[in-house]
Structures are given as C-alpha cells and as structure tokens.
Design a protein that fits this description.
This protein has about 200 residues and is an alpha+beta fold. It has one domain. About 10% of the residues lie in helices and about 25% in strands. It has one helix and ten strands, in the order αββββββββββ. Strands 1, 2, 3, 5, 6, 7 and 9 form a seven-stranded mixed beta sheet that branches. Strands 8-4-10 form a three-stranded antiparallel beta sheet, with no helix packed on it. Strand 6 and strand 7 form a beta hairpin. The chain starts with a helix and ends with a strand.
Length: about 200
C-alpha cells in the first residue's frame, strides 16, 4: 500500500514538473533585422569660360570696324578671326569657349540656345532656323572635332551639340551669328543671352 502511494506521488510530481516546464517562455536571440538604404542622387553641373562675347571684338580682323557689326554679315566666336569660319573639322584653336563638367557625377549631353537681342533699335530676333531675315538673325554652334556645319541655335529646343561628355572633362566650342539683312535706325547696342544646357546622357 505504501509502495503504491509512492508511485502515485511520483507520478503526480512528474505531471507537475512537466506542467511547470511547459509554462517557461521560449527565448529568441533575434526576431528582426534592419536594412539601411542609401540613395545617392546623380548630379549635373557645368561651367563655361569665357562668359561674354562681343560680336566682331574677339580679334577685330577688319570685317567691319572693331566692335561694330554690319548688316547681313556672319560673326564667329573664333580666336582666329571674327570673320573666319572654322575648318571642315573644327580645330580647338577655332573655338572661343570651353565647357567643363568637373563636379558632375554622370555623363551629359549639351545644347546651346540663344535668345533675342534686346535694347538694339529695331528687332534682331532669333529666326530659329539658322538663316537670317529682314529683322532676324541666324545662329549656329560648333564643337571641336565636329563638323563646321554646326548645330542650329534656336531660342529654345536646340539640338544636341555635344553628346556623352564624360565627367571631369573639358570641351572647346564656338558659335556664329549672321546679322539681320535690314539696316538699323541708329547705333544703339543690344544684348542677347546664349545658354548652354546640360542633361544626363541616357
């Protein structure tokens, strides 16, 4: 009888022990992990030198009096001569300007627009076609190593002059403007702005 009671007691203790063990919480070392996301925007920046151009005043080679312009005449941003067109394949020394992509993180495409002249007596607006007219001028941009035919400089939406220019790179370029065909009423000077724009090369 006593032995039987011991067995019952042992069995009861084991059941209690199992019950206690079952209620002990399970410990987990790690139930979540973080992932840090880094986002680095691409960056476009260009500089250009020089940032001024007076027609017929780079060299003043006798096209008209130095610093003055005549009607129906082409003036080049060419250090070899204000009235000197670039050679068929443009040379570096025929380009007045130099663009620099230092600081950009991606290659770029570059185009050049040119606005209307303001201040001058009588209109001299951009024709948008490259050809001049009675009250409009025609304009082109060109780049070293490219064709002297150049790219039409419109007021907006000009074609690409330089494609896929790498980061931290310089490139020489120039332009020309053909003045209006009709004479001006007086000698009041005017200004226009030529704008080089960069977009990421795709």
């Amino acid at each position: 009888m006593e032995r039987k009671q011991r067995r019952v007691l042992i069995a009861a203790l084991m059941v209690m022990l199992l019950a206690i063990v079952a209620t002990v919480p399970v410990a987990f070392a790690a139930t979540s992990q973080n992932v840090v996301i880094t986002a680095q925007p691409s960056w476009l920046t260009i500089s250009n030198d020089p940032d001024v151009w007076t027609l017929n005043d780079i060299v003043g080679d006798g096209v008209t009096a130095k610093g003055y312009i005549a009607v129906d005449t082409i003036y080049y941003a060419n250090p070899q001569g204000d009235g000197t067109p670039p050679t068929a394949t443009v040379e570096a020394d025929e380009c007045q300007f130099e663009v620099d992509t230092t600081g950009s993180s991606v290659a770029v495409d570059l185009s050049v627009n040119c606005g209307n002249f303001t201040g001058i007596t009588g209109d001299m607006d951009n024709s948008g076609t490259g050809a001049n007219g009675a009250t409009t001028y025609g304009g082109y941009s060109y780049v070293v190593g490219g064709s002297s035919a150049g790219v039409v400089m419109a007021e907006t939406g000009s074609g690409v002059l330089i494609s896929d220019l790498a980061i931290d790179t310089t490139k020489k370029w120039g332009a020309w403007i053909e003045t209006r065909t009709d004479a001006w009423a007086d000698d009041t000077s005017g200004t226009a702005t030529m704008t080089m724009s960069a977009v990421q090369h795709i």
